[in-house]
Design goal:
32% of the residues lie in helices and 26% in strands. By secondary structure, the chain is α/β, with parallel strands linked by helices. The longest helix has 20 residues, at 318-337.
Length: 348
């Protein structure tokens, strides 16, 4: 099997390491690299000095995408900057590649209809890299809510916050894709969108959103660094709010979701890998002590490869990537206009 890696920054290299861990030397690895930075990362995001990425992982690199596609790879991992996801995905899909598409699938809806059309016509598999959906706490929350243990949902609060300055200590944070509008950056599309994915996975699509935020701090970047959005969800008996917060400032970082119902509540801390649940007078905790962050990336890789080899439906399909992106773009529109947005562009 030939696998084409498009972009080999930190996330691309994580997938690369996991491919070699799970499948050894069997896959032939190609890479389309634009910047070709001489950085080889460890699992802890430390640069491994004097290690050649190409030599370490037996990669053939190309500076031209058409030349890489002429090698006829069966699979492409789209892990470059957000703004370039769809153009590269379109080229790879036209060449007949199954796609692992990193989140978010884009920073706009441009080209997505065309990608969906090609994927359908060629019967291609597209798996979107929302690994937090595979967190054991989120899996537990999905089942917990399905069992109705806390009755009707009254409110949901989701928070993600981390210091942008220290996310990538090996480079100037102002030059990262997260900090630059021309690369599809901002706390909404690079952090909050993960929360939007698992929220629509848990509750479906909302009815409306109101968002407030922007460039509020002192980071000196041209994208929003702080954002709060309230999504309204309609139910048979009324509605409930889902409040989502994201920022580029919290240290230590924070990532959790709390669901309050008529009979109790549940809190999933994604960083501590713990669950606190209270149903009536009974309070319990779960701690996933053996969990590591890379477990989620390993599982999504296995799920993607399984759907390709077994011709089954992707666990996190392109349609879900469109849904989470539409939620994010609606929040951005609300933030920019100051109004409540009822239309979700691209909702499937």
């Amino acid at each position: 099997m030939k696998i084409l890696m498009i972009g080999l920054g930190s996330i691309g290299q994580r997938h690369l390491r996991n491919i070699r861990r799970l499948y050894g030397d069997e896959p032939e690895i190609l890479a389309y690299r634009v910047r070709g930075l001489a950085r080889t990362f460890s699992d802890t995001m430390q640069i491994r000095e004097n290690i050649s990425l190409e030599e370490e992982y037996q990669i053939r690199s190309f500076g031209d995408l058409s030349e890489a596609l002429a090698e006829k790879p069966e699979i492409a991992f789209i892990t470059n900057i957000t703004k370039s996801h769809i153009p590269c995905a379109l080229a790879c899909a036209r060449a007949g590649c199954h796609l692992f598409l990193e989140k978010p699938i884009s920073d706009s809806m441009e080209g997505i209809d065309a990608l969906c059309k090609i994927v359908r016509e060629k019967n291609l598999k597209v798996f979107v890299g929302y690994q937090n959906r595979l967190h054991p706490g989120i899996k537990y929350l999905k089942q917990f809510l399905a069992e109705g243990k806390i009755g009707n949902v009254l409110s949901v609060r989701s928070v993600v916050g981390e210091r942008l300055v220290t996310m990538h200590t090996y480079e100037d944070y102002k030059e990262t894709y997260m900090a630059r509008k021309d690369m599809g950056g901002g706390v909404l599309l690079n952090q909050m969108v993960h929360e939007l994915d698992y929220l629509q996975y848990l509750f479906g699509m909302p009815d409306s959103v109101y968002a407030c935020g922007g460039i509020n701090g002192n980071l000196g970047i041209d994208v929003e660094d702080n954002l709060d959005a309230i999504y309204k969800y309609k139910t048979a008996g009324g509605s409930f709010p889902v409040s989502v917060h994201a920022d580029f400032y919290q240290s230590p970082p924070s990532r959790f979701v709390k669901v309050v119902g008529e009979k109790g509540h549940i809190v999933v801390d994604l960083l501590k890998a713990t669950v606190l649940q209270a149903v009536g007078d009974e309070v319990g905790t779960i701690s996933y002590e053996t969990f590591t962050r890379n477990d989620m990336f390993i599982e999504e890789l296995q799920l993607f490869m399984d759907c390709v080899t077994n011709d089954s439906d992707p666990a996190i399909p392109l349609e879900d990537g469109v849904r989470s992106l539409s939620m994010a773009l609606a929040a951005r529109k609300s933030m920019e206009t100051g109004g409540v947005i009822h239309e979700f562009i691209g909702t499937i």
